[in-house]
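User: Let's play a game. I give you a shape written as tokens, and you guess the letters that built it. Ready? Here's round one.
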């Protein structure tokens, strides 16, 4: 379950309620994403709070963009989060889809590439391995709880990106707009083959999609409302054109059927993305997962 970090007017009480409900529920992971030029919580600050508010669930960034950060400082922040959470951190990384986030922090948009991301991952892994990356007296710490650092996933939609990440990632933190399981399985196959060619264990296969549980018309309207806010860099008429088929909306029984379809193609996880901060959505999904077995 993903935190409602892209919803408006959030406060600490709402975020804490969601975190505790996810931690106490049947969910395998608690996820949250990063944007800069948007009214959402800072991903690294929230990591500290989530580590304190939860005890069980895995914490997964979906995703952080390393090119928006100094890689040494980012490695230190993530290692701290791993310590505070007792080694429960998984880090999804991506190049990001918006130039405005790069401009907001003075990052070079020419680095919005998989190669530039891999270079920063290499620096972060050196930090986590305890190597000195500067002429400091001591290496940059703290050391992460997980040996070698948190598990890394690549956030991507395309096969070329998947192949390029096989050398450093443990799997995928993907997304699907239209819930096409055949297309998703084809991407999973690319990952399986790339990881096998790299001599690595089977990749962790995760995908995600926006969701709304409720009566058909109201639930679809909820998804549209969320997309209009989140996709604020896209003209409204284009968002309206994709809104009827983007993400998922429907009943709890229909969600159960969708999750079974992803289970059938070998998905290890589905990271559900809420389109409302209504905590009842979390409780209703928890009931679906109980039926999933």
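Assistant: Ready! My guess for every position:
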């Amino acid at each position: 379950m993903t935190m409602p970090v892209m919803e408006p007017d959030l406060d600490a009480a709402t975020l804490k309620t969601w975190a505790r409900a996810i931690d106490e529920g049947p969910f395998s992971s608690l996820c949250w994403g990063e944007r800069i030029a948007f009214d959402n919580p800072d991903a690294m600050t929230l990591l500290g709070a989530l580590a304190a508010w939860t005890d069980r669930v895995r914490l997964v960034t979906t995703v952080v963009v390393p090119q928006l950060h100094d890689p040494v400082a980012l490695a230190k922040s993530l290692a701290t989060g791993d310590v505070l959470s007792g080694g429960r951190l998984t880090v999804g990384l991506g190049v990001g889809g918006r130039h405005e986030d790069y401009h907001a922090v003075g990052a070079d948009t020419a680095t919005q590439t998989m190669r530039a991301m891999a270079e920063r991952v290499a620096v972060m892994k050196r930090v986590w391995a305890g190597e000195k990356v500067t002429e400091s007296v001591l290496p940059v710490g703290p050391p992460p709880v997980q040996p070698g650092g948190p598990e890394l996933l690549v956030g991507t939609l395309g096969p070329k990106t998947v192949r390029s990440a096989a050398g450093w990632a443990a799997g995928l933190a993907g997304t699907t707009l239209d819930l096409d399981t055949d297309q998703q399985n084809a991407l999973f196959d690319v990952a399986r083959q790339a990881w096998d060619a790299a001599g690595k264990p089977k990749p962790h296969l995760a995908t995600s999609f926006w969701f709304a549980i409720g009566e058909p018309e109201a639930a679809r309207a909820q998804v549209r409302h969320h997309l209009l806010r989140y996709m604020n860099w896209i003209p409204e008429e284009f968002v309206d054109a994709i809104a009827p088929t983007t993400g998922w909306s429907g009943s709890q029984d229909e969600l159960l059927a969708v999750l079974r379809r992803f289970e059938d193609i070998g998905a290890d996880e589905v990271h559900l993305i809420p389109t409302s901060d209504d905590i009842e959505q979390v409780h209703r999904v928890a009931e679906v997962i109980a039926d999933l077995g």
